[in-house]
Amino acid sequence: MRAALAGVEFGKGDFVASLDELSLLASSAGAVPTVTIIDKRSSPDASLFIGSGKEQEIADAVLDDGLDIVIFNHTLSPAQQCNLERVLKVRVLDRTSLILDVLATRAKSHEGKVQVELAQLQHLATRPIRGWTHLERQKDGIGLRGPGETQLETDRRLLGDRVKVLRARLEKLHRQHDTQRRARRRSSAISISLVGYTNAGKSILFNALTKAGVYAAD
Ligand SMILES: Nc1nc2c(ncn2[C@@H]2O[C@H](COP(=O)(O)OP(=O)(O)O)[C@@H](O)[C@H]2O)c(=O)[nH]1
Ligand SMILES: [Mg+2]
Asked: Please, which residues have CB within 8 angstroms of residue 100's CB and are 6 or more apart in sequence?
């Protein structure tokens, strides 16, 4: 799956590092970043986020390089995403959806899976779901994977129902974890938490301490 990366430099923050990270995230999701298109603006364009000249550059790249997807290094409004998909005629993903996709393909624990599905649905709930039907043939695409994908065909009421079910499930899991924690405390077992941003090295440290052999990778 060949991807264009699109970023707008607003002149603050570490733009290059953030684009590098986007490229790594895209690769983690199974895409091949082929073209990077950068715009410089003081504020996002209301309807396309990126300037119309740059939008045309992306459109040309999509045709010339046979790209399947365009990934923005920003959070797009539902309208911007819809407008971009209409003019580019390929799927447009924002940074949040990309990150959720990576999390969906990596989540192992029951609680992790429920949390990712909930986050995907909450992000989807702000999107024009019906507007995606023209792209639904690209079923196995990035951003459509994970439990959230089945929601594409359903309406918002069902989406709301599913969010309620997931919230209830998480609450139940939290109660179970409370019970387990109390049991551990009674048995006076020592428990340690490793906390850190993605890629901080938690899993490497965990494996070094416990020989557990959990998944650890860049
Ligand atoms: N240079 C360096 N790399 C590390 C260190 N700890 C972890 N890494 C690398 O950082 C990446 C992410 O590690 P991982 O334990 O999976 O991070 P996690 O997301 O916090 O679980 C892997 O490629 C590791 O090899 C460290 O102390 N030094
Ligand atoms: Mg880890």
From this structure: 116, 119, 120, 123, 143, 146, 148
Q: Measure 108 CA to ligand 1 centroid, in angstroms.
A: 19
Identify the DSSP state of 109. S
Q: Would you give per-residue pLDDT tens digits along the chain (218 residues)?
A: 999 999 999 988 889 999 999 999 999 999 999 999 999 999 999 999 999 999 999 999 999 999 999 999 999 998 999 999 999 999 999 999 999 999 898 888 899 999 999 998 888 877 755 444 444 444 456 666 665 555 455 567 777 888 999 999 999 999 999 999 899 889 888 888 999 988 899 999 999 999 999 989 88
> Domains of the chain, with CATH numbers?
2-159 (3.40.50.11060), 192-218 (no CATH)
**Residue 216 CB–ligand 1 contact under 6 Å:** yes
Atom of ligand 1 nearest to the CA of 216: 16
The answer to whether 118 and 163 have CB atoms below 8 angstroms apart is yes
This prediction's pTM: 0.74
